[in-house]
ATP-binding cassette, subfamily B
Amino acid sequence: MKGPLTMRMPLGFDLAGAVDRRLWWGLLWGALGAVADAVPWALLVALPLLMQEDGGGMSPVWLLAGLGAAGFVLGSGLKALALNANFSSTYTMVAQARLRLADHVARLPLGRVLSWRDGAISDLLSSKFSLYQDIMTHVWGLVVAGLTFPVLLWAMLLLLDWRLALVYLAFVPVAMLAIPWSYRLLDAAAARVSAERDLAVAGVVEVVGGARDLAFFDPQDRRRQAVHQHFDALSRASLATEVAPAPALASYALVLNVGVVAVMLLADHWLGDGSLAPMVLCLALFLVLRLNGAVAEFGLFLAELRFARAVLSDIRALANEPPLPQTKAAVQPVGGEIQFEDVSFAYDGQAVIRGLSARLPAGTVTALVGPSGAGKSTLAHLVGRLWDVQAGAIRIGGVDLRQMDEATLNRTVSMVLQDVTLFPMTLADNIRLGRPEASDDEVMAAAEAACIHQRIMDLPSGYQTVFDPEAVRLSGGEQQRVAIARALLKDAPVLILDEATASIDLDSEALVQQALSRLCAGRTVLVIAHRLWTIRHADLILVMQDGAVIERGTHPELIDSRGTYARLWQAQQGR
Ligand SMILES: Nc1ncnc2c1ncn2[C@@H]1O[C@H](COP(=O)(O)OP(=O)(O)OP(=O)(O)O)[C@@H](O)[C@H]1O
């Protein structure tokens, strides 16, 4: 998916990128199946004519029964073909749409993805997409076949008596007005369901993920009760969604039934003035009643698609998120120098980085310090292009990040953040994540340099241990050292470090520091520092406040200048 998915099709087939040809075959078989269904009715209409003709041959009733049976067999076969083609095409297309959407999410600014409520994207790609898939696979084919059958019945009615056919037809568009009305009634209710569902899913993720903190700090279970309330609200909203379109659907049925009554009354009138034969009247009334049932059914299928519309609007909202612009002519950086040139950035109009400039020579360590909310993490994230700057530029090795392609940026920058993510694969594969082709020896060498080799070897399956936080108990410091090994192996020239604030035990901390100093050697490092003693040897310290650098220099220079840094240093010494 190259850009935002803006080309719209009402049922969202455009999201798949291309229409699977089997879809058209499915529609054709479905329509032909409906024609076969209409055969007995056509024979019924033809019965009076057949009966008028001189017999001698087969009885018309037998003929009708034989052709009717053949129509039934043929119709069943065609419907089976239609179902097969409809299912296989719609399943394929919905799966394609899901994959394209997942690719699209991967191209969004990472910062945007992380800002979604916990679980919202996975819920959309799994549960909501499944609902959409069910409707597409089960209802779509029925809608098309469901249209053919009443059209054929109406054509027969037209042949029998064009006046009755036109009278009934006049009521159909009026009834159809109720379908868009039902969609409008549903839209507001569906938006509420979607919002409540997102809150409930996020609540569950939060309560499960934070179970330990909640056990100690929320003895009255207030967070869990809040989740209960979201689920209550969700079930109320879901019920309201079912009920909301009821007035529209009832009106649809009412108008159609009034149409049938009108046909009956006029038929009676035309019978009275002799312009309608009694036999034709009987057949026409049969047809109108069956036709009315088929049109009512068709309306229900259409109404059923409303659920797809509701889910589709959420899917489209995600599909229309603008991805990070990708450059066509990628430029390769030379060296690892980082330059911030008058960089500004705001979240939703709220300025967080204001005209910041700095030069971080290749192979040096620069520390970012400052009070909480000063913009340190945001600046570090901008170097990793989790977002794009809104003014100014960030260059690495002389190249504006926006001129680097994804692969180059990935090769150039490593990030080791506080929250380490280890994936459910072997520890060896976790370490070689950034360089999948690395040999086992290289993986082990990186783990040794990161002071985690021995701990891994102590596990029963060693490097082949599949990481599972429940079964493989690695401490915070150990997980961090696995992440350091990962970064060592990837060997990118630029390293963004978010120094851990979580207290890890002293032994582990000493090992982490040792591993970090090996990782930092020879690279351009930007480290977000919380404990100043860890960065007192940094080549450059940038003191940030309100998105700007208010002091810069080495540790001795900043101490001598007796400014904010010196005060922060004093404060931390006192602890
Ligand atoms: N994804 C986001 N959406 C909106 N605002 C954000 C987002 N991330 C951070 N902010 C806001 O931007 C400001 C700077 O945050 P940032 O995390 O960069 O500061 P920081 O100096 O790293 O703070 P800390 O030391 O506490 O991590 C804060 O006011 C924060 O609330």
User: Anything to note?
Assistant: Residues 111, 115, 347, 352, 370, 372-378 surround adenosine-5'-triphosphate (CB under 6 Å).
